[in-house]
Model the fold of this input.
Amino acid sequence: MGIGQEALIADPVREVQARGKSWCATFEISNDPSRWVQFTIDAINAGYPYAEEPNDRLRALGVLAVLAWEPNKYASVTISSDDAGAIAAWIDRYFADVLSCGGDYVLHVTLEDLDA
Done:
C-alpha cells in the first residue's frame, strides 16, 4: 500500500468525477477478479468475502454508511470525502486490508458509462 498505488487509483477516480454520475471505475486484482472495487460518484461497491456485518471492519477505513451488503459477496458504502486522493487512499487500504492483498498488488482498471 502506498503512494504509487494511490496515484494509479486516483486518475480513474478523477475521470469518473469529471464524466458524471453514470460513470464507474472498476478496479480488479489482475490475477484474482474476485477481489474488486467499483467507484461511482455516489458509492463504492466492493467484493466482501466475510460472513459478518461490515460495519466494524470498515469503520477503521472511514466509512460513513454501509448502504447494502451481502455476506461473502459485496458491500456498498459511502465515504466521507470527494477528494480523489483521499478516495484512492481508501480504495488502496480496502485492497490491502479488507481484501488481504497487502501492498504489492496489480490492478486492472475499467471505465464504463453505466447508462450506455
User: Anything to note?
Assistant: The CA atoms of residues 50 and 59 lie 15 Å apart.
